Amino acid sequence: MEELSIAQALVVMGKAIGAGLCMGIGAIGPGIGEGNIGAHAMDSMARQPEMVGTITTRMLLADAVAESTGIYSLLVAFLILLTL
Amino acid sequence: MEELSIAQALVVMGKAIGAGLCMGIGAIGPGIGEGNIGAHAMDSMARQPEMVGTITTRMLLADAVAESTGIYSLLVAFLILLTL
Amino acid sequence: MEELSIAQALVVMGKAIGAGLCMGIGAIGPGIGEGNIGAHAMDSMARQPEMVGTITTRMLLADAVAESTGIYSLLVAFLILLTL
Amino acid sequence: MEELSIAQALVVMGKAIGAGLCMGIGAIGPGIGEGNIGAHAMDSMARQPEMVGTITTRMLLADAVAESTGIYSLLVAFLILLTL
Amino acid sequence: MEELSIAQALVVMGKAIGAGLCMGIGAIGPGIGEGNIGAHAMDSMARQPEMVGTITTRMLLADAVAESTGIYSLLVAFLILLTL
Amino acid sequence: MEELSIAQALVVMGKAIGAGLCMGIGAIGPGIGEGNIGAHAMDSMARQPEMVGTITTRMLLADAVAESTGIYSLLVAFLILLTL
Amino acid sequence: MEELSIAQALVVMGKAIGAGLCMGIGAIGPGIGEGNIGAHAMDSMARQPEMVGTITTRMLLADAVAESTGIYSLLVAFLILLTL
Amino acid sequence: MEELSIAQALVVMGKAIGAGLCMGIGAIGPGIGEGNIGAHAMDSMARQPEMVGTITTRMLLADAVAESTGIYSLLVAFLILLTL
Amino acid sequence: MEELSIAQALVVMGKAIGAGLCMGIGAIGPGIGEGNIGAHAMDSMARQPEMVGTITTRMLLADAVAESTGIYSLLVAFLILLTL
Amino acid sequence: MEELSIAQALVVMGKAIGAGLCMGIGAIGPGIGEGNIGAHAMDSMARQPEMVGTITTRMLLADAVAESTGIYSLLVAFLILLTL
Amino acid sequence: MEELSIAQALVVMGKAIGAGLCMGIGAIGPGIGEGNIGAHAMDSMARQPEMVGTITTRMLLADAVAESTGIYSLLVAFLILLTL
Amino acid sequence: MEELSIAQALVVMGKAIGAGLCMGIGAIGPGIGEGNIGAHAMDSMARQPEMVGTITTRMLLADAVAESTGIYSLLVAFLILLTL
Amino acid sequence: MEELSIAQALVVMGKAIGAGLCMGIGAIGPGIGEGNIGAHAMDSMARQPEMVGTITTRMLLADAVAESTGIYSLLVAFLILLTL
Amino acid sequence: MEELSIAQALVVMGKAIGAGLCMGIGAIGPGIGEGNIGAHAMDSMARQPEMVGTITTRMLLADAVAESTGIYSLLVAFLILLTL
């Protein structure tokens, strides 16, 4: 392992913990939200079988929006890890 | 890795942890909220198939508002990382 | 990276963590609240299709009020980052 | 960045974290509460279309009261940041 | 920034964090409680349109009581910030 | 700002944080409880319009009891701030 | 402010934080519990108007028991503040 | 204030915080539990008016059991404060 | 107050905080559980008035089992305080 | 109080806090679980009065299993306190 | 009490706290889960009295599986306490 | 007790706390999940008595999958304790 | 074990804890969300047996989206462990 | 026990705690999610007995997806323990 000063070690610690918390906590909301959307889409398909195609595309549209804060978290985690 | 003083390392730690918590925690609310909107939109479409277009645009409108605090979090995280 | 004293580093740390927590935690309430408003608006539109316009404007009005504490959080985060 | 003593840095840290927690946590209650009010107002409008105007003004009245603790939080955060 | 001793800085930190937590956490209960009152008032008005006036005044009366602990929090935060 | 020893500063910190947590956390229970009482009182008035007066006085009676622990918190916060 | 040793300051800090947490956390349970009792009493009165008196006295009796742990908390907080 | 050594101050701190947490947290369970018992007793009285006496005594019996862990907490808090 | 060494003070602190957390947290489960048992017993008595005696003894039997972990907590708290 | 070294004091602290947390937290699950079993047993007895004996013995059987992790916690707390 | 070095004391502390948290937290899941199984078994017996024997053995089978992670926790706590 | 260096003591502390948290927290999910499976299996058996055998084997199959993350936790705890 | 400097040890600690929290917390959201989707898919299949194929593919589609933040967490954990 | 430097001990501590939290917390989501899937599968089998085979395979398919983040956690925990 390469030689490091304490200051450099603190930088690595800070970046690892900051990025880890950012992506880890940031995955809770979209994961639960998209699960909620998907669960209700399953119910809707069973209630209106002829609308499967319509509901599938709308489900993906709603998922795309709910995914956005997850992608922001990924973006901030990358910024912390790679460019700070 | 470039040479750093302890003070500079503390700055990087603070910025990484601050921005990570900001975006990570800030993704919980919009993720759950938009999932809630999307889930009820799925139900509504199955109940009123002829309103799919209307509900889709209103769902996106409601999502846009619920997304706002997520975007504020992204903005504050950028400010912390890039301009502090 | 510019030279810093320990005191200056502590200031940056405090501002980054304070502003990050302010906006991050402050995004939970409005995100969930607006998601709740939007979800019930979807239901209402499906139950009363002829009221789509009325409900849309009232939904935005209710969202505007629920958004307010999110904007206060953004304001306080800006004050912490930029003028302290 | 201007020269600071450790004591002055501690003051800035304390003010940033104190004000950030005050406004961040203080935004949870009003955000969820107003979302609850707004969600039930949507339902009520769909059930009694002829009462849209009455319910809208009462919704804003109820929101104004629920907003109050959010405004107190903003006030205390300002006091902490600007006059302490 | 004026010159401070460490002891004076600790006082400012303690006052900022104490007052911030007091008002921030103290805003959760009244915010959620008043939201609950307001939400049920919306429902009641839609169920009994002729009682709008009566329910509005009772809603404000109930809100006034639920607001009280929020005002106590504001009072304690002021005492901490201004007179300690 | 007056001159202080470290010990005096620790006293102020302890009193500010102790009183702040006491009143802040102590406002959660009564706020939610009174909101619950008020919400059900709204429902009851809409179901039994002729009992508005009776329910209002009972609601205030129930609120008075639920308020009691909030007032105890205020009392303990005052004791901590003013007489310790 | 009177002169203090560090040991005396630690005593004041410990007493303030201990009593504050005791009363603050101790107010959550009775507040929510009494709110629950009161809310169901409101419903019961609206369902059985002729039993208002009976239910009011039983509600106060149930509240008196639920209040007891709140009073124990107040008692322990007083013991911590005044006699330790 | 009497003279103290650091060791004596640590003892007072530990006793204050230990007893405070013991009684504070210990008040949550009985408070919520007795509120639950009381709330259902209110409902039962409204459903079976002729059983008010029977239900009142059983409610107090159930409360007495639910109160027991609250009293244990008070007992342990007294032991910590007075005899340790 | 008697003279103490730092080591003796640490022992008192550890015992106070350990016993306090043990009994305080240990009171949550039985309190809520017994409240749940009691609440359903109230409902059952109102539904089957002729079974009041049977349900009362079974309620006490169920409470006795649910109480057991509360008594274990008291036992461990006593062991920590008195014999460690 | 007997003379102690710092190391011996740390041992007592660790044992007190470890055993306290073990039994305190370990009482939550069985307390709530047994309360749930007992509550449903009350309901079942009111629905099937002729099965009171059968349900009582099954309730105790189910309680015995749910109690097991509480007894494991007691066992581990004893091991920590007495034999470590 | 036998003589100890600081290192030996740290070992005892670590083992006590590690084993205590392992068994304490590990008792939450099985306790709640088995309570859930038992509660539904009570309901099922009241609905299908002739199946009491079948349901009792299946309840014990389901409990045995849900108990497994509690037993793993006990096993790990023993390993930590006795063989580390 | 054998002689140890501080470094060796830190290793034992880290391993005890790491393995304890791993198995303790890791027991929550499977415990609650298997309780949920078992509870619904009880209901299903009472609704379809002739399917007891089928449901029992499927319940064990579902439990086996839900148990898997509990077993992974046990595996990681063993790796931490025995081979690190 | 190879020789390490303190700085190198801090780097390993930071990376292990950062990556561990990232993947650990990041597994909560997708796990619960996919469980929700799967549970509703089971219900839908039982309600519309002829749609088993359609619902299965849509369930996998919805799972794929809900899985995404879990995969982002894995990606960030890998980045922290392997390339930082 | 082999001789260690402090730095080597910190590495072992970091790896044990990081891997333990990763797998421990990472077991919550899949455990609850798979329990949810399994519980609804039990209900579905009782409602549609002729579909037992179909639902069993789909349940395992849904479990396989929900298990994935648990396996990622195991993978990251292995990486932390064995290759860091």
UniProtKB/TrEMBL annotation, chains A, B, C, D, E, F, G, H, I, J, K, L, M, N:
The record marks 67 as: Reversibly protonated during proton transport. It is found in: Cell membrane; Membrane. The keyword ATP-binding does not apply. Residues 17-80 form the V-ATPase proteolipid subunit C-like domain. The chain crosses the membrane at residues 60-82. Its main location: membrane. F(1)F(0) ATP synthase produces ATP from ADP in the presence of a proton or sodium gradient. F-type ATPases consist of two structural domains, F(1) containing the extramembraneous catalytic core and F(0) containing the membrane proton channel, linked together by a central stalk and a peripheral stalk. During catalysis, ATP synthesis in the catalytic domain of F(1) is coupled via a rotary mechanism of the central stalk subunits to proton translocation. Key component of the F(0) channel; it plays a direct role in translocation across the membrane. A homomeric c-ring of between 10-14 subunits forms the central stalk rotor element with the F(1) delta and epsilon subunits. HAMAP family: ATP_synth_c_bact (MF_01396). This is ATP synthase subunit c. The lineage of its organism: Bacteria, Thermotogati, Thermotogota, Thermotogae, Thermotogales.
